[in-house]
Amino acid sequence: MLHRPRRSVLYMPGANQRALEKARTLAADCLVLDLEDAVAPAMKVTARQQIAAAIASGGYGQRELVVRINGLDSDWAQEDIRMVADSAADALCMPKVETAAQVQQVAALLDGAGADASMAIWVMIETPPGVLNAQAIAAAHPRVKVLVMGTSDLAKELRVPHTPGREGLQPALGLCVLAARANGLDILDGVYLDLDDEPGYVASCEQGRTLGFDGKTLIHPKQVAAANAVFSPDALQLDRAGRIIEAWREADAEGKAVVLVDGKLVEILHVEEARRLLAIAEAIAMVDAE
């Protein structure tokens, strides 16, 4: 897929065998099989083995498979990286990234372990140094494809409350969106922790979309449907995109440099965005048709 949907990105604990099996039936675009926060120290090795077996056995369809490893300073990171490199995972997710050097270290370890050249690195931005170094981190290596906001840890580090509008987080969120876009990367919004607050969760998804995020990380399967809906182009957007492209095609054939659609001036930048929306919708349709 030229545009891979990442509307809903669900964390699944690697130590929970049933969760790994259930993930094959969920409508999430991406699954982050977790070796870090969701796994107790005594279960780290077991979780690693279970994730390796789950990926090897397949059955996940077109869902993007990502493995979140333990931190580089932990006792488990080296073996985590070797396991991911030897697997058919689409990407490795690094937690609490603060420098470009950390990314380059993991990329070198993946290379040394024989990882396929297509294996991506996702980097989590969860601390003030990570935010301030987001541009360097995003540009650290060609394997880096996605930035992931770890808003729970970031709020703690910044000493800001979890307000509905996330006022205290918005400067950091904006900087990271800029870093992602400057480097041609996708960027994912952080999790919403209150599973009983559906209106608040939907509002958080809508805010994330407005801020420029491509999708949202999730902690429970019940959150998948709303994320998919909010981060999908709607019918009105797709209709307008189609009309923009058609109007531009006609104007170009007539040698015109500008065109109006619904009374608004359309330039090539609007055509490019219209094409992007239609490509995303096509990719979503492929995933949803499974």
List the defining traits of the structure above.
globular, TIM Barrel, 2 domains, 8-stranded parallel barrel, 290 residues, two-stranded antiparallel ribbon, alpha/beta, single chain
Give a short summary of the structure.
The chain has 290 residues and is of the alpha/beta class. The chain is 46% helix and 16% strand.
Describe the structure.
The protein is of the alpha/beta class. The protein contains twelve helices and ten strands. The chain has helices at residues 17-22, 44-57, 77-85, 100-112, 128-132, 134-138, 151-158, 170-182, 198-211, 224-230, 235-253, 268-288; strands spanning 8-13, 30-34, 64-68, 91-94, 120-125, 144-149, 186-189, 215-218, 259-261, 264-266. The strands form two sheets. Strands 1-2-3-4-5-6-7-8 form an eight-stranded parallel beta barrel, surrounded by six helices. Strand 3, helix 3 and strand 4 (91-94) form a beta-alpha-beta unit. Helix 3 (77-85) packs across helix 4 and helix 11 crosses helix 12. The relative contact order is 0.12. The mean pLDDT is 94.
Indicate the topology.
Blueprint: E1 8-13, H1 17-22, E2 30-34, H2 44-57, E3 64-68, H3 77-85, E4 91-94, H4 100-112, E5 120-125, H5 128-132, H6 134-138, E6 144-149, H7 151-158, H8 170-182, E7 186-189, H9 198-211, E8 215-218, H10 224-230, H11 235-253, E9 259-261, E10 264-266, H12 268-288
Parallel strand pairs: 1-2, 1-8, 2-3, 3-4, 4-5, 5-6, 6-7, 7-8
Antiparallel strand pairs: 9-10
Helix pairs in contact: 3-4, 11-12
- Per DSSP E runs of 2 or more residues, the count of β-strands stands at 10
Which shape, going by the Cα principal axes?
globular
CATH topology of the largest domain: TIM Barrel
| Helix-strand sequence | EHEHEHEHEHHEHHEHEHHEEH
Subunit organisation of the chains: single chain
CATH superfamily of the largest domain, by name, is Phosphoenolpyruvate-binding domains
Which CATH class of the largest domain is shown?
Alpha Beta
Strand content: 15-25%
Main sheet makeup: 8 strands, parallel, barrel
| Chain-averaged pLDDT | 94
End-to-end separation: 15 Å
